[in-house]
Write a structure and sequence with these properties.
mainly alpha; Hydantoin permease; globular
């Protein structure tokens, strides 16, 4: 009974939806989606992304949530319970390791958003600056070891405080506050962006598809963005699903999570792309430096840019926090379930591990020559961690989970779980077809795409 209390449960379906949506909504939606859209032809990319979320992301999410609720355990325990005396528990262990590993370097970037919020309200971007000056400011900021490690530590602490409170009193309570704040900030910033001069050109680029711009790279990017933006493949949805009550409808809950995640991504593009046209910057040239290099120089030119800039980086910080909470919870639930640790001790232990493993990534942007360009690998520590954990591990995890559900545990078991308490699995046959024949192939294509192109998500 004590361990059950340590695990906890969602107080309501809305609590789960907001927490799971918060897990999915992060820097990938607000940072990567807009520049990926800009570099892949605009509206055509957005349309393909939505299609892939529905056809690939949603079926895999339903599968993960069903695994979690049926087993009512962490990813490792879930696979052990559903496939005893087999090697499938390794998939769960991969998910736990991936989650804590991603948390370690994700918290570094999340710390930057807090640092830039502080810099913005301090007036660092109140005067006109060029992108070269903005780039110098960014390099100086991330190259300072005290900034890098300090903000990493701060963000890990933020995440730990929330998770330490438990499922309903910690994660659910805070996400019910953070998610509305995130949405309100996003709407306010979007309204300001679309009313800027020349914003109309950005809206045409964003909403009028030009299918001649679709290439194999566009398809690969849209498919990868759809999969990775939903926090699939690392056990987060299995973990969150394990706290769902039996009376809740899994399909409807998963649908809401995908809806909110996609909606936030689309609104984020609507916030950023018109702002690029405001300063006459071609969207295709925005690139990964969009958030910390390009946008600060835009804020300085924008009427009310001080408020817009501060609100934007606060928005990023909130989005990042809702994601780091879920990353930490995956590892914490493993220690609570499998090692019978008290939640507080589990949070402290995993937070320390995440912080220590995050230090190389924090120092990999000029603060340490060694970690900035690792010998032989010729890559920074954070970039290497993202390649191994954020791309390969997630893809392999999502692929194996879809195979497990389709051919090991079986679609009939998912049907039974979904339809418990007289719930109806609408479009169940379509889901079964997708998860058996389409999702594994699509995820494998992403894996090949990453290897061949070297484009990471």
């Amino acid at each position: 009974m004590q361990n059950s209390q340590e695990r906890g449960a969602w107080g309501s379906r809305m609590g789960f939806v907001l927490a799971a949506a918060g897990s999915a909504i992060g820097l990938g939606n607000i940072w990567r989606f807009p520049y990926s859209t800009a570099q892949n032809g605009g509206a055509a990319f957005v349309l393909m992304y939505i299609i892939f979320v529905i056809l690939i992301g949603l079926p895999v999410m339903i599968a993960e949530i069903a695994i979690g609720r049926n087993a009512q355990l962490n990813p490792v325990g879930a696979f052990r319970k559903l496939a005893p005396r087999s090697l499938w528990a390794i998939v769960g262990m991969l998910g736990v390791a991936t989650g804590i590993g991603i948390l370690s370097y994700y918290s570094v970037i999340a710390g930057w958003t807090v640092g830039y919020f502080v810099k913005t309200i301090s007036g660092d971007f109140s005067s006109l600056i060029t992108q070269d000056v903005s780039k110098h400011i960014f390099e100086s900021f991330v190259g300072n070891p005290y900034n890098a490690i300090g903000y990493l530590f701060m963000f890990v602490i933020f995440s730990a405080v929330v998770v330490m409170g438990g499922v309903s009193r910690g994660i659910e309570r805070w996400t019910k506050i953070l998610m509305p704040v995130l949405f309100i900030l996003l709407i306010l910033l979007t309204v300001r962006s679309v009313t800027l001069p020349n914003a109309g050109e950005g809206l045409v680029f964003y909403f009028k598809p030009d299918f001649t711009k679709i290439t194999a790279g566009t398809v690969g990017s849209a498919l990868g963005q759809a999969l990775f933006s939903l926090s699939l493949g690392m056990g987060a949805m299995i973990t969150y699903g394990s706290y769902i009550l039996k009376k809740d409808n899994i399909v409807i809950s998963a649908g809401y999570v995908c809806l909110f995640d996609t909606m936030i991504a689309i609104i984020s593009g609507l916030m950023i792309i018109p702002a690029l046209y405001f300063v006459g910057l071609e969207p295709e040239k925005s690139g990964p430096g969009l958030v910390f290099v390009v946008l600060p120089s835009i804020f300085a030119e924008m009427p009310g840019g001080f408020i817009f800039g501060a609100g934007f980086f606060l928005l990023l910080s909130v989005a990042a926090l809702t994601s780091t909470i879920s990353l930490l919870e995956v590892a914490v639930s493993y220690l609570v379930d499998e090692w019978k640790l008290k939640r507080v001790k589990a949070v402290i232990l995993m937070s320390m591990i995440a912080f220590l493993f995050g230090i190389p990534s924090a120092l990999s942007f000029g603060a340490s020559t060694w970690f900035t360009k690792l010998p032989i690998i010729n890559m920074g520590a954070l970039d290497l961690a993202n390649v191994i954990l954020g791309n390969y591990s997630l893809t392999i995890g999502a692929f194996l989970i879809s195979i497990f559900v389709a051919y090991k545990w079986g679609v009939k078991s998912v049907f039974k779980e979904v339809e418990s308490n007289n719930n109806i699995f609408y479009y169940g046959k379509f889901w079964a077809f997708m998860v058996r024949f389409i999702c594994p192939v699509a995820i494998f294509i992403i894996f090949v795409y990453i290897i061949v192109t070297g484009e990471y998500f």
